Each structure stands twice: as structure tokens, then as C-alpha cells.
Amino acid sequence: MTENMKSIKHDYSRREFIKKNSLLGAGAVLGLSSANTLFAGSAPEASSPAILGGKPVISSPGWPSWPIWKPETDEKRLLEVIRSGVWSRKDVALEFEQRWATLIGAKRCLAVVNGTNALNASVAQLDIGWGDEVLVTPYTFIASVSSIVFNGAIPVFVDVDPETFQMDPEKIEAKITPRTKAIMPVHILGLPCNMERIMAIANKHKLLVVEDACQAWLAEINHKKVGTFGNAGCFSFQNSKNMAIGEGGAIVSDDDEFMDRCYSYHNYGNPYGTAAGTVGAGTVMIGTKLRITEYQAAIGMAQLERLEEQTELRNVNGRYLNSRIQKIDGIIPHRLYENVTKAAYHLFPFRYQKDEFEGLSREKFLQALRAEGVPCSGGYTELNKMPFLKNAFNSRFFQKFYPKEQLNYERYAEENQCPLNEKLCNEQAVWIPQNVLLGSKSDMDMVANAIQKIRENAGQIKKKL
Ligand SMILES: Cc1ncc(COP(=O)(O)O)c(C=O)c1O
Cβ atoms within 10 A of the Cβ of 49, count? Predict the structure, then answer.
């Protein structure tokens, strides 16, 4: 438990939190004026906006910086590994894989170098490639889509449901063609996709499902972890991630044959189980080298000690902050699908409506919010319009493999327009990073107060900034 989390436990037990939180909700139902509830937890900041020289709402945040590393508990295992001289994949990597599989509720886990290659390997070993189309959200990190193109398949973009920030399942079927081989749901920001609906569509059309859970460690739908719904689930343990190793990734699945192939692929194509360092193993496929090291696994084991507790706290704070900001005009909180029992909250998103902020642009709003002490960004730009797609279509391999009419980029771009994603990327989305959600309830109040303060001073900020 971090010092910070200890203090939260001390001054605000979870049970007490839930009790107070539900009372707050009841207050909203009873019609308490927003002025009474908006500044719950701390005094209203009547001063001028920090961006214009006023006092910031948050001067010493209670949330931890990221990643968290505690030498007294975290270094023992790591030092043992380093001093042992066994640095290539062996027992610690195996132990880490078993722990991850158990935590996620999957039969098997393979740790790999990063989330990007967890996706690349999964797509390849599910035999998704040349000639295939894969349905994917445009609202994601580049690695989701590049894993499709990397394997020679064509991404087909399904627009988002802006309320949830996820691929809209109601728009999937219209995009299915005889070439569609798979769906790649991305649980973006750590908020679960509507997997029950997506799996029903995949089953109906006999499509494979590769879940990009690279931002969604321990997120759940009806208590079933994301990453376990489809044929494969992929995770990232990169530095900024809630489960941070620096670099690292994992593939989970219940399909033994698939997992054996992934193992071979990640170890030069040698037969499943061949130990690192073995030569002359009788290579069975063209593979590559994606092995995690023992010291990465040791760092992972240390982080695993905290992940569940941190995830709980992010959920408590995430839901509370959502309940606070929904009372601010011009802020649209994100929505979790009804059956979500836990989110990962890699990022806490909301939508910004500048018309309700006297026309203050999102960029200026973000600048002003950062000045108040709240880390934030506008998130992704439009991935479905980036030049890598046209360049791939023009590449020698694509030209050789695909019929000319399928590589008509203008037509592809037209068919893959995603107007709701466009609005999210260019105008509306605001992200707050996950470590903020490891603060206290009063930190959450201050974040909401900072947003409210900007709203009250929006005209002035717009004029002077
Ligand atoms: C949604 C998503 N997919 C894939 C990846 C790739 O993971 P990695 O950075 O570990 O390669 C990331 C990482 O940021 C991600 O956010």
C-alpha cells in the first residue's frame, strides 16, 4: 500500500466512502442546488484562474507520481535475479505468467516484450493476414491498428459510441463483408467494451476476436475479466501503464494450440516449451524473438502486489469524480456499460462542450486546467486518417497482394469516415491520467472544483489567453 493510499484508508474508509457517495447521489435526486454540492470537500476557489495569475486550486496534489517503486518491498526479488546471473527467460517469467493467468482468469499466459508484439503475435497466430479485413475502433493507440496492417490485413474502422468512448457495437454489422475475418475490440482508456454484444455478433458471423486489453488490466464485465472473452487477450506493461514494468506485454487465452504457437513464435519458432538458450531445437515455424527477461518479470511481480488494491481505488475515485463533474454544465461524464463490474481507468475521460464555456476552445480549457494543477490532455488524434494507411496501400506488398480496386484509397477513406470519433478527437475528449485517481476523495473534489472554476471564468480566460 502506498503512503498516499494509507492516508486515504485512514481518513476515508471505503465503506464510509460508499455511504457518503450514495448520500451525495441522493442529494442530487432531492434537487439540492448545484452550488451546494459542486464545492463539496473544500472551499470554493473564488480567486482568478491560475492561467491568468491566480492561485491554483491544487498546489500540492495528494496523488502519487508514476510509476510507484518501493525499495523496501520491491527490490529483494529484483536483486536476487540480477545477482543470480540468470537474466534470460526462466523461472520468474514462468511464475509471472502463472500469476497473470490466474488473476485474469485465463488458462494460459505468455509474457512478451510489449503490448505491440502481443497484438502482432496474436493476429499472426490466429492466421489473420493477407486478404482479410479486421474491424477496429479508430479511437485507439496506433499499435492496435498497426498489428492488423503489419500482418497484411486491412483495418476497417467502426465509429465510436461517444458516451462510452468505445467501438459502437451497433455499427459493427454494417461493416462486415465476406472478407471480414476478425473483430479487434480495444478496451480503450481501461473502460470495457460491450463484449457481450460484440461476442454475439462475432459468433453469429463466425469471426475471430482479438481483444486489445493493453489499457485494461483487471477490468471486468459481470465479474469476468476483459481479455478472456475473445480468442486472445493482449496486455501492455509499458511505463505509463497501471501495471508498469517499463516495457512488457502478455497474451492470454484458453486455447492451448494457439498458445503453443505463440510460444514458438516468440522464441525463434522453436517447439513449445524450448528453453531460452537452447540450440538445435528443431525449429517448427518462422518465428521471432519476443521473450521477456527475468528482471522484467521480477519488476512485474512487485507491481502485481499493488495492482488489485490500486484498481479498486481507481474505481471508487473514478465513479466519484464522474458523479461530481456531471453537475457541471458543459461537461459530459463518460458512461460505463451497465454490466461493467470494474473498470481499469487507465485514463479518466470526459467530454468538453465549449459552447457551455463561453466558446473557450478545448486547448485553452486544457491549458487552464493544467494551470490549476490538474494533469490532462486532449487524447488521441484521428488514426483512420493518418498517412500510414495510404502508404501501406501504396507499398509493393499490398500492391502485389490485393486487387487494385480494394486499394482505392479515396474510396477506402470515404467508407472509413468516423464522424463521432472525429468530434471526440478534435473537439471534445479530455483525459486525466490514472495516477490522479490514486489520490484522496478531497483530491477528486479539487479536480472537480478546478473544472468548475474554469467554467466560471471561461469568458475572461477566452478574452485574455
Ligand atoms: C490500446 C493500446 N494497444 C497497444 C499498445 C501497445 O503496447 P506497448 O506500448 O506495450 O507496445 C498500447 C500502449 O500504449 C495501447 O495503449
Answer: 25
With vertex at residue 115, the alpha carbon angle to CA 206 and CA 246, rounded to the nearest 5 degrees, is 165
In this prediction the pTM is 0.91
Residue 353 in any domain: the answer is yes
Could you tell me if 94 and 250 are in contact, meaning their C-beta atoms sit under 8 angstroms apart?
no
Q: Looking at the structure, do residues 48 and 170 belong to the same domain, yes or no?
A: no
249 CB near ligand 1 (under 6 Å): yes
272 SS3 class = coil
Instruction: pLDDT band for 182, please (50, 70, 90 cuts).
Output: very high
Quick check: CB of 115 below 6 Å from ligand 1? yes
β-strands 180-184, 340-342: how paired?
unpaired
The residue from 301, 318, 333 where one domain ends is 301
Q: Is the CB of 140 under 6 A from ligand 1?
A: yes
Domain coverage including residue 171: 71-301
Q: Whose CA is nearest to atom 8 of ligand 1?
A: 115
Tens digit of each residue's pLDDT (9 = 90 or more) over 310-329: 999 999 999 999 999 999 99
Q: 251 C-alpha vs ligand 1 centroid, how far in Å? A: 13
| Å from CA of 116 to ligand 1 middle | 6
